[in-house]
Amino acid sequence: MSPLLFIGVEMYWCIEIDQCTMTPINQYSVGAVLRLLLMRYLNHFLLSAALLVGCAETAVPTAELVLPTTAAIADVPELPTAIPATATVPPTFTPVGMDLVVATPLGDFAPTTAATYTPFPTATPSNTPTITPSPTPTETPIPIPTDTPTAVPPPASGNYLPNASFEEGWYHLNGRPELQIPNQWLFEWDEGPNTLDPDPWNAFVRPEVRVLSTDFLPAQEHATFIWNGEQTVKVFKGEGAISYRLLTDVELEPGTYLFSVKIYPDLVMGYTPSGAKIWADDVLAGEVRLIADGRSEPWMLPNFGQRNVFTVTFTITEKRPVRIGVAVRGRWAILNNGWFMDDWSLQKVD
Questions:
Q1: Helices (DSSP H) in 129-266: which residue ranges?
Q2: Which residues of 184-214 are buried (b: 16+ CB within 10 A; e: fewer)?
Q3: How confident is the model at residue 39 (pLDDT cuts 50, 70, 90)?
Q4: How far apart are CA 347 and CA 246, in angstroms?
Q5: How far apart, in Å, do the first and last CA atoms of the chain sit?
């Protein structure tokens, strides 16, 4: 122990012993008290300084770091080989009762694996008996009426026209269902520019032809359009200008003949509020011309909305086929350009 430390300890104990005496403090003078206090604080200061000096003089043992010596590396045993890919990996633990939901960011969809196709086993066909086809029957064509009727001998009834009242059936001209032509009659029509009226609206169009029986007409119209037998011919076109000819060939002996036709011009330009027909108001809306022995008579103007009878007389000097018929035209495309025909005749008068 250093002398400074020893002096401090002695002074400390002297002061402590002095304080332990029960001497009343009023027996000391002020100077004595101050000296005592000064000595007390000085004693503490010296004691602290002695402790610091003593700690500084005391040797602190130092630790010596001993590094390991380098030794030869022993042979490392060979590590076990990696687990093959086919080894079964134990399943991870999944708590029971917990729903594990993995959120997928919007727009980032994980592709699904397409299922592989497993083909079905190839079927082995069984021995199927061969079918021997039966011979196909040949079709016997049905004769179709020709467009040109054959000439017929004079009838016993006195009417030289074949199928004069259009009761003996009809055929489809050129296979067109809208053209029902009476048997043993020809039908011709004009189609294209109308020289009577250059307006494109009034160009000639193909008309329609029907052979109508009482079953296809209202009962109140039977007497209006059928004048002999149970059928009539209607040639018409809605909102279309038409020009056509209905013809037949007849073999005649020399003599004078009277050709007579009955025609009803059903030329309608409108209807009243009650449904009544309004007839065409121009007399040129419908015209009729008779054709006999290659001659065409002048155009005639019929009365619309009623039956008209037209006749022509001609003479031949030798036996031969003669073409007989009627030409009709409606030069304007009115609402209904219709014509009914029935009960025609060709009589020998001389």
A1: 222-225
A2: bbbbebbeeebeebeeeebbbbebbbebbee
A3: confident
A4: 18
A5: 190
Quick one: pLDDT at residue 139?
A: 39
Q: Rounded distance, CA 219 to CA 212, Å?
A: 13
What is the rounded CA–CA span in Å between residue 125 and residue 263?
74
pLDDT at 350 over 80: yes
Contacts of 176 (CB under 8 A, 6+ apart): none
Q: Cα(234)–Cα(136) distance, rounded to whole angstroms? A: 42
Angular region, 166: left φ>0, alpha ψ -120 to 50, beta rest: left
Whether the per-residue pLDDT at 63 is higher than 80: the answer is no
Q: What is the pTM of this model?
A: 0.58
| Residue whose entry in the numeric block shows the structure tokens 């009623």 | 306
The answer to whether the CB of 2 falls within 8 A of the CB of 53 is yes
How many whole angstroms separate alpha carbon 213 and alpha carbon 168?
12
Q: Which two tokens stand for residue 208?
A: 């329609």
| 342 close to 166: Cβ distance less than 8 angstroms | yes
Residues 6+ apart with CB under 8 A from 128: none
CATH topology of domain 170-348: Jelly Rolls (2.60.120)
Nearest to 44 by CA among 52, 29, 56: 52
Within 10 Å of residue 165's Cβ, how many Cβ atoms? 22
Beta-carbon contacts of residue 298 (< 8 Å; ≥ 6 apart): 289
- Quote the CA–CA distance of 313 and 292 in Å, as a whole number: 8
Show Cβ contacts of residue 283 under 8 Å, excluding neighbours closer than 6 positions.
301
* CA pair distance 114, 242, nearest whole angstrom: 70
Report d(CA 178, CA 212) in Å as an integer.
12
Q: 95-101: long-range contacts at Cβ-Cβ below 8 A with a sequence spacing of 24 or more?
A: none
Q: Which residues contact 144 (CB under 8 A, 6 or more apart)?
A: 171
Tell me what the mean pLDDT of segment 68-81 comes to: 46
Q: Which residues contact 323 (CB under 8 A, 6 or more apart)?
A: 247, 248, 249, 291, 293, 294
Q: How buried is residue 146: exposed, middle or buried, by Cβ count under 10 Å (0-12/13-18/19+)?
A: exposed
